[in-house]
Write a structure and sequence with these properties.
With about 230 residues, the protein is mostly helical. The chain contains six helices and no strands.
């Protein structure tokens, strides 16, 4: 594809996004089926509906430009989707850990889409394609909102469940686990124990120093015991 003007790049970017949305639409049903966590499954299902709407917007933009919609394969998205397929078909995965992996995979795609829609929206506005820019702005907003939604799900449930699940198989052995359910009292108790330990150690040190001072007072300047 020629790239002699910014318009050429703009059309190429649209074609790449169009192709990536088709790849994502094909992958989402498998991710929905493989997900055990209800809120994550619903987010993937909602994203499937949004992806269909975004494809329709892109087709309207191609029509505005007098161009036939062309799908360019997005190699970054293809690579992430392949990783997702490997996670789904792994036979040695804990369900909670698999959900965390699928959520991470989805956010990698979201960040790619945010970057892609951001660039093509900027180019549309710069070239004066106001209607196309308005359509792209809607899709860009949806991608930002979905990314924020996935982040919230990760923090509130998915990552916490994954962190608790496989203690028996943890590669790093024993580890501290900070959760949303940790009580302030437990933290205060821990700090109290640390304070007591430091105080006890300091008392032993000072007591030992005073004993040595007392012992030295029992001898005169010639080193003879008094």
């Amino acid at each position: 594809m020629k790239l002699n003007a910014l318009e050429d790049l703009f059309v190429r970017e649209l074609s790449e996004i169009y192709g990536s949305e088709q790849q994502i639409l094909k992958a989402l049903p498998k991710m929905i089926k493989a997900t055990a966590q209800p809120s994550l499954r619903q987010a993937f299902s909602d994203h499937k509906g949004e992806t269909k709407d975004q494809i329709a917007r892109l087709e309207r933009i191609f029509k505005l430009l007098g161009e036939e919609p062309e799908r360019l394969k997005s190699y970054p998205v293809a690579g992430v989707i392949q990783q997702g397929d490997e996670i789904i078909h792994s036979k040695e995965s804990d369900a909670d850990v698999r959900d965390a992996a699928l959520l991470s995979t989805a956010q990698k795609v979201e960040h790619y889409e945010i970057a892609s829609y951001g660039a093509v929206h900027t180019h549309a506005a710069l070239l004066g394609y106001e209607e196309a820019a308005a359509e792209l702005a809607v899709s860009l907003k949806e991608e930002h909102e979905m990314d924020a939604r996935l982040t919230a799900i990760a923090k509130e449930t998915v990552n916490l469940d994954a962190a608790r699940a496989p203690y028996g198989r943890a590669r790093t052995g024993k580890r501290a686990l900070a959760t949303a359910h940790s009580s302030p009292e437990s933290g205060s108790a821990g700090r109290l124990l640390v304070g007591l330990s430091i105080g006890a150690a300091l008392a032993l040190f000072l007591g030992s120093a005073n004993w040595r001072k007392g012992q030295s007072a029992l001898y005169n300047s010639s080193g003879e015991r008094i």
